[in-house]
Design goal:
- The protein is of the alpha+beta class.
- 34% of the residues lie in helices and 36% in strands.
- The chain has a 4-stranded antiparallel β-sheet with strand order 2-3-1-4.
Length: 85
Amino acid sequence: MKYFAAFLKMEKPELNQQYRQAHLDFLADLDEKGFIFARGAFADGTGGLVIYQTEDEAKARALAEQDPYLVNGVRSLDLHEWNKM
């Protein structure tokens, strides 16, 4: 299993609340299915972080790109493989 850190940078804060519940429901579903190691918002309101656990980057990217925040342009994605110690 590999880990991938998805930095979700806030792009359209005016739309954040509109898609927040859909985003949270999406992540809860993936968490329940075992695809998420950790997740949470940045305290300064600039976005959030999701650490996906998948077999490869393509799978992590495919999952991340289904997030309602990304689909609706609320946030942008910066994905990196993460070496968990």
